[in-house]
Fold this protein.
Amino acid sequence: MSAQILSGTAVAKVVKAQVASDIEALKADGIQVGLATLLVGDDPASHIYVGYKHRDAEAVGMNSFDVQLPADATQADVFAAIDELNARDDVTGMIVQLPLPDGLDGEAAVERVLPTKDADGLHPFNLGRVILGRPGPLPATPSGVMTILDYYDIEIAGKTAVIVGRSFLVGKPMGLLLGAKGVDATVIQAHSRTPDLAAVCASADILITAIGRPGMVDASFVKPGAVVIDVGTTRTEDGLRGDVVFDEVVEVAGAITPVPGGVGPMTRASLLTNTIGLAKAQR
């Protein structure tokens, strides 16, 4: 029996409708909401992702600002562009599109963004608030995963959640959200150097892969009936591919996100939700 398909596209549609409603209410109070992106270099995938973000913002009535720097921009150029966006009253949230070109420090760029304008939820100040369980913008991709699980009434409390990947973008904050008090999963943080990774993954009730290795996770990694969330999208000559061998795993899992159409749309929807929250907090 094939698994239930967890469509991030469908969930994002619901989230964006709420965002659009919130924007109309804020406009009625004289508050404009603006999302800015900073893109450095000519990476085709990054240009595509940024384009999607601006399309989503404009679709919900959010002002959208696209700032681009050439591939030979210096760290000082990047900092100057961020400082300018930090100072603009019409920018309520911003994103530094990662990765930056070789030779530039992406983490330093993220830290340069004011925490009060951090639409990605990746500033150390905001990640610290996640650890403490305090309100603030959540890392966009993990937040999107949590929204998918909630929308489809996936039971989390008391379940074993295995996360493959430990980046500050996805893996580490994903573990914090799933293990938080009131959510109550038992979290195993696995990675590429975990011994017998397949067996560890096969212990999961909820398996989240965020390692960026197309087709790494086959049916042997998956407990029958498990929920599989495929975050590790990679752009290949054959199109977007996830970490999971979908055609195999869909016959074993109880529920699974597709690639594309799974976590990606919800990452972008979470950016919009964060920007709304930041706009309200700033006012």
In short: DSSP finds ten helices and eleven strands in the chain.
